[in-house]
Write a structure and sequence with these properties.
heterodimer, A: 237 residues, alpha/beta, Rossmann fold, 4-stranded antiparallel β-sheet, 10 helices, B: 301 residues, mainly alpha
Chain lengths: 237, 301
C-alpha cells in the first residue's frame, strides 16, 4: 500500500529547545497508526510538527507532496484534520457554529447540510445539543464535537491527540468505536497519539514508539502488544 | 422637562458616536489584545476623505460610502503592511507604532487639508426630520445611521460564514488555523471593519464638533471609557457603554444647570462634563473591574 504521509528525519524546536531529534515514520493510506510513548516523548510535538505549529526541519510528505513549511491553514486545506489535545473547541460558539466553521469556505449549502447530517449520524448526541454553547458540553461531548468538526473538513488524514484524555472509560470506548467506524466508512486514515497504549494498540494496525524525541521501535500492533520488553520499558503496563 | 428630553436626546446622539468608536476599539482588541490609540485619528482622516470627495462634487451619501470603502481598504493595508511584521513583537513596540500612527495621521491631515477648522454639512433635512423640542434632525439622523451600521455589523458577525470565521479567529487563533481559517487575513479584515465603523462615527460627528485634525481627541477618550465600562472584550457591551457615557455626560451638565438655577451656586456645568463622566467611569471600574458586561478572565500562569 502506498503511504499517505511520509515523515523523514523530522526535528522540531520550541524556541531554542529541540524536542524532536530524528523522527521517521510512514502512514499507510486508509489505515490507523498509533504513536506511543511516555510523557514528554514528543508525541504531541510530532502532530504539531506535521501541521507546522512548531519550528521544524526535515521532510514531511503528504500524498507525495512536500508540506514542510506550509502555513497551518493551508495544510489543513489539503484535508489533514488535527484534533488537538485538550479538544480545542470554540467554547463561546454553539455546537452548530463549531461544526459550520470547518465548512466556511464552501459555497454549496446543500452539501454542507448533508455533511452535517452525516456527522450527526456518528454523533447523535451532538444533534440534541446543536444550539448549546460548546463550553457547556461535558468533556466527552466536547471531544466528540472536536472529532465531528474534524470530519466536517472531509479529511483524508485525521491526527488525534489523546482523545481519551480525562474521559470516563465508557465514553472512551464509545469514542474509539466511532473512530473505527469513521476509518472504515469514510476511508479516513488516522494517526492516533495515546497514553492509553492498550486501547490504542487494539484500534491501530501499526505502532511507533517514541522516546525523548526519537522513534525507538515500530511494528505491527500485534507484535508490539505482545512484546514483554517493549511493554515494560516504554508503555508502562 | 423639555430641556431634560433635549439633553437626553443629544446624549444619545453623542453616545451613538462613542459606541461606534468604542466598537472599533473592541473589534481590534478582541482579536489582537491591543488598544488602537490611532483609531480616532484614522476616523478623522476618513472624515477628511469624505469632505474631499464632497468638495470634488459628490453628494453627501456617495462621499459617505466612498470614504467608508476607502477607510476599509486603508485599515486592511495598515494591518497587512505595518502591523503584520509586529505579530510577535512585544506589546510596547505595538503601542509605540499606534502612537506613531496617531501622529502620522494627525500631521498628514494638517499638511493636506490645513489645521483650519472647517464646517461640515449635515445630510439630514431640517424640515422633515427630528421631533421638535425632543430631538434635533441631525441627532436623530446620527442615532439612526449608527443603529443601522451596528445592526449590519451584528448581522455580519452573527449570520455569515465569514463573520463566524472572524469570531473563531478572535477567540482561538491557533484552533481557527486548524480548521482552515486564514487567521492573518481575518485580522486584516477586522482592521478594515474597525476603520470603516470609525469612518461612520467621524462623518456623523463632524457636523457637531466641526472638521479639524484634532476633532477626535476627546471622542477617543470617551470611547475608551465606553469600551471599559461595557467590558473591553465585549462588543455589545462597548455599544451599550457608549450610550451610557453619552447620556451620562449630558445628565451631569443638566443636573449642574438645574442646581445652579435653584440655588444660584455653580457646582458643575458643561465645562466639567468630561471630568465628572470619567470620575463616574473610574468609580464603576473600581467596583466592577471587568466592566458592566465584561467577563472576568482567569489566566493560568
Amino acid at each position: 500500500m502506498a503511504s499517505l504521509l511520509e515523515v523523514k528525519a523530522l526535528k522540531a524546536f520550541y524556541g531554542t529547545t529541540q524536542s524532536l531529534y530524528e523522527v521517521n515514520f510512514e502512514i499507510p493510506s486508509g489505515g490507523i497508526t498509533t504513536l506511543l510513548g511516555a510523557n514528554g516523548a514528543g508525541k504531541t510535538t510530532t502532530l504539531r510538527a506535521i501541521c507546522n505549529m512548531v519550528r521544524t526541519e526535515g521532510s514531511i510528505r503528504f500524498d507525495g507532496r512536500d508540506i514542510a513549511g506550509m502555513a497551518t491553514e493551508e495544510i489543513v486545506r489539503l484535508r489533514i484534520a488535527h484534533v488537538p489535545e485538550g479538544r480545542g473547541t470554540f467554547t463561546s460558539l454553539t455546537v452548530d457554529e463549531n461544526l459550520r466553521i470547518a465548512a466556511y469556505t464552501r459555497r454549496d449549502k446543500a452539501a454542507v447540510k448533508a455533511e452535517l447530517e452525516r456527522v450527526f449520524d456518528y454523533f447523535p448526541r451532538l444533534k440534541e445539543r446543536i444550539q448549546q454553547q460548546a463550553g457547556t458540553l461535558s468533556g466527552g461531548e466536547q471531544q466528540m464535537l472536536a472529532i465531528a468538526r474534524a470530519l466536517m473538513l472531509k479529511p483524508r488524514l485525521m491526527l488525534l491527540d489523546e482523545p481519551s484524555f480525562g474521559l470516563a472509560p465508557l465514553i472512551v470506548l464509545e469514542i474509539f468505536r466511532i473512530l473505527k467506524r469513521i476509518n472504515e466508512e469514510e476511508k479516513v486514515s488516522i494517526l492516533l497519539v495515546e497514553q492509553n497504549a492498550a486501547l490504542a494498540l487494539d484500534l491501530a494496525s501499526h505502532a511507533y514508539v517514541l522516546e525523548t524525541g526519537k522513534v525507538v521501535m515500530s511494528g505491527p500492533s500485534s507484535v508490539v502488544k505482545n512484546d514483554e520488553n517493549i511493554r515494560k520499558s516504554y508503555l508502562g503496563y | 422637562m423639555a430641556q431634560f428630553l433635549e439633553q437626553f436626546a443629544s446624549g444619545l446622539a453623542n453616545g451613538a458616536i462613542y459606541a461606534c468608536v468604542a466598537l472599533a476599539l473592541v473589534m481590534i482588541y478582541v482579536s489582537t489584545d491591543h488598544l488602537n490609540f490611532a483609531q480616532g485619528e484614522m476616523a478623522m482622516f476618513s472624515t477628511y476623505i469624505s469632505w474631499q470627495l464632497m468638495n470634488w462634487g459628490l453628494s453627501f451619501w456617495v462621499a459617505f460610502a466612498g470614504a467608508v470603502v476607502i477607510s476599509f481598504v486603508m485599515g486592511v493595508l495598515i494591518e497587512r503592511v505595518i502591523l503584520r511584521p509586529l505579530h510577535h513583537a512585544p506589546i510596547l513596540s505595538v503601542v509605540v507604532v499606534f502612537i506613531g500612527l496617531l501622529a502620522i495621521f494627525n500631521s498628514m491631515a494638517g499638511a493636506i487639508w490645513s489645521y483650519l477648522i472647517k464646517e461640515y454639512p449635515s445630510p439630514f433635512p431640517k424640515s422633515s426630520f427630528g421631533i421638535a423640542g425632543v430631538i434635533g434632525p441631525h441627532q436623530l439622523g446620527v442615532v439612526l445611521v449608527t443603529l443601522v451600521v451596528l445592526g449590519l455589523l451584528f448581522g455580519f458577525f452573527r449570520f455569515t460564514p465569514l463573520g463566524l470565521a472572524m469570531r473563531a479567529a478572535a477567540q482561538n487563533p491557533q484552533m481557527a488555523r486548524l480548521v482552515g481559517v486564514r487567521v492573518d487575513w481575518m485580522l486584516a479584515l477586522g482592521w478594515g471593519l474597525a476603520a470603516a465603523v470609525g469612518a461612520v462615527a467621524g462623518i456623523m460627528v463632524a457636523h457637531i464638533v466641526y472638521l479639524d485634525p484634532n476633532m477626535m481627541g476627546g471622542i477617543l477618550l470617551y470611547a475608551f471609557a465606553s469600551a471599559l465600562i461595557g467590558g473591553i472584550g465585549n462588543p455589545a457591551g462597548a455599544v451599550v457603554g457608549g450610550f451610557i457615557v453619552g447620556v451620562l455626560e449630558n445628565m451631569v451638565a443638566y443636573t449642574g444647570n438645574q442646581i445652579e438655577k435653584l440655588t444660584g451656586v455653580y457646582i458643575i456645568g458643561n465645562g466639567e462634563k468630561l471630568t465628572v463622566a470619567l470620575i463616574i467611569v473610574i468609580f464603576v471600574l473600581t467596583l466592577k473591574p471587568a466592566g458592566l458586561f465584561g467577563r472576568v478572565v482567569v489566566r493560568r500562569v
